[in-house]
Design brief:
By secondary structure, the protein is α+β, with helices and mostly antiparallel strands. The chain is built from two helices and eight strands, in the order αββββββββα. Strands 1-2-8-3-6 form a five-stranded antiparallel sheet, covered by helices on one side. A three-stranded antiparallel sheet has the order 5-4-7, with no helix packed on it. Strand 1 and strand 2 form a beta hairpin.
Amino acid sequence: MKIINEQLLDTTTTRAKQSPRLRMNYNFHEQPDDPINRLLNAMEPGTYIRPHRHLNPDKEEIFLLLRGKAVVFLFDNDGKITEQQLLDPKTGTYGAEIKAGVWHCFPVLEPGTVIYEIKTGPFAPLSPENMASWSPAPKNEEAVKKYLEQLKTAIKGL
């Protein structure tokens, strides 16, 4: 049996805080080619998950927020926000399911945020066609900082 408890969340969060990317995975699936990938993703404010989609191969994603606060943004093909949902267990909003091929990103709003993520395997690195060309590349730190600030100002319901 694999247990998700406070100690595991704390350990994974500590590793995220030490990571240059400000996030860290803890995989429950044993091999990248397992038919279902299941993982904790501990993330800190300032981490950048570039807007992306899962098309070719088509994959739906499910996020369940275990602690912290984040927002899920959905976009059209031009980068316009089409939908957003604040995830905060304190207000009773725990997760989201993203359909395959839908542009999305996941800005983190509180330290110690951890999600449980589920998607079909096998693991496949995102190809360039699945990265939103209208968003900054992760290496462009100044543009990323500005983009994250723009997303923060777009958040409704805070």
